[in-house]
Amino acid sequence: MNGNALKQANTKAVIKELLSESSSTRIEISRKLGLSKMTVTNIVSALLKDGFFVENKLEGSEIKGRPAVALSLAPNAPKTVSVYLSPERITIRIESLSLKQTSERNLEIGESRIQDYEKILLEGLDQTFRESINTKIIGIGISVRGNVNCKEGIIEDKEHYFGREKIEILSTISSRYPLPVSINSSTDCFAMAESYYGIGKNEPEALYINILDKVESTIVHEGELLKSSSKFGCQIAHISIDYTGLSCSCGNRGCLETYISSDVMVKKIRDITKMRLDFKGFCELQNKKNDSRIDWALKDMMDKMAAALVGYCSLFHPGLIVLGGDGFYIPDRYLAKLEKNINEKTSKFNEVSIKVRKPMFKNETRETGAILPLAMNYFETEL
66-73 and 53-63: which strand pairing? Predict the structure, then answer.
């Protein structure tokens, strides 16, 4: 690793530590990361100069006779614009790395307005920037629900975006605003937020699975999204668990998504129970009282997931698997069943047990996570 790459890696490690903890002293950061005090001091000095962090004396704590000084995010630190895009609505926020938002704008889309998607987005951004004229904005972070080509910044999801083949997001925004723009799937953003602030912040590698009407997944390794050569990234959803099974929209048979998506599970449970609840409702009901029919469906869901994940875990050995989206509502005993099943079948290949957990947050991370890749790139290039 050359000097510049090492500096960037050290800077990223220090920033992640500062974001993961409410406050830390320079000595604590140095010890935890194994960096010299001088290296930490140089990085911290640049962060203080840029206005992102501040130092405050810790009452009742002294180091060699002097009050200890803790670093924390500055209340008036530069902000980012976070944007969440879905077929139904656009959400635009002014947000800081402390997870505090100063404004939020929700713009309804739907089928009747889908042809004006880019126009509505730009009008919303224009209004947001006008209202934040005295705020330092370092960039725009975008989170997209559905299939998004992150490399080119194009939504390619005709099925969910009411027949539109492509929606040009990156070029539309970049041609209007002279700011860095980062675009990722909502699952990538959920994973980044959980990696920095939530359940995955102490895990070197974790697999994040978002279970909604589609099943999406991503991998975070050492605080970085692990990008594949595919424009749509990691696709656990399309691992086939039965080559003669159900037909999938991708053209294959037996893909995991055809068995465990929220829509599929709701239809299955409604058919056997004759109840008209959504996935969350069925899970909440199962938490209150054990319905043998719902129990069978959720156990079958866990078995199907294990069939796909055992192969993955034998290859990549993540320490943690996080089930987001509607996975957040699955009762813990079913996650324990999935965890046990995976570990029993991969114990020969894994030195440590794999944990299966729910995320710390629900859906709010889709916007927060959008700003993290943007902010980290800013720190790497500007400091």
Answer: antiparallel
As a whole number, mean pLDDT of residues 358-363 equals 82
Residue 148 in contact with residue 129, Cβ under 8 Å?
Answer: no
The distance in angstroms from the start CA to the end CA of the chain is: 19
d(CA 183, CA 153): 6
Please check whether the domain covering 79-190+364-382 is classified as CATH 3.30.420.40. yes
* E-assigned strand segments in 37-125: 53-63, 66-73, 79-85, 89-95, 101-108
In angstroms, what CA-CA distances link 207 with 4, 318, 343, 361? 29, 6, 15, 16
Q: State both tokens at 15.
A: 């920033």
Q: What is the mean pLDDT of the chain?
A: 89
The phi, psi pair for 46, rounded to 5°, reads -65, -40
Please tell me if the domain spanning 3-73 has the same topology as the one spanning 79-190+364-382.
Answer: no
- The CA-based angle 375-381-383, given to 5 degrees, is 90
What burial class does residue 255 get, using C-beta atoms within 10 Å of its C-beta: 0-12 exposed, 13-18 middle, 19+ buried?
buried
Residue 167: pLDDT band with limits 50, 70, 90? very high
| Contact present, 125 and 177 (Cβ < 8 Å) | yes
3-73: which CATH number, 1.10.10.410, 3.30.420.270, 1.10.10.10, 1.10.3430.10? 1.10.10.10
- Which tokens go with 246? 């159900």
| pLDDT recorded at residue 64 | 56
| Other CB atoms within 10 Å distance of the CB of residue 260 | 24
Q: Give the per-residue pLDDT at 284.
A: 97
Q: Which fold has domain 201-357?
A: Nucleotidyltransferase; domain 5 (3.30.420)
pTM of the model: 0.88
Angle at 99 between CA 97 and CA 101, to 5 degrees: 100
Residue 84 has pLDDT above 90, yes or no: yes
Domain boundaries, the chain: 3-73, 79-190+364-382, 201-357
**C-beta neighbour count of 329 within 10 angstroms:** 20
Give the residues across from 82 on adjacent strands: 93, 141
pLDDT digits (tens, 9 = 90+) for 211-250: 999 899 999 988 888 876 665 667 899 999 999 999 998 8
Give CA–CA dist 268/83, Å, rounded: 34
Mean pLDDT of 120-135: 94
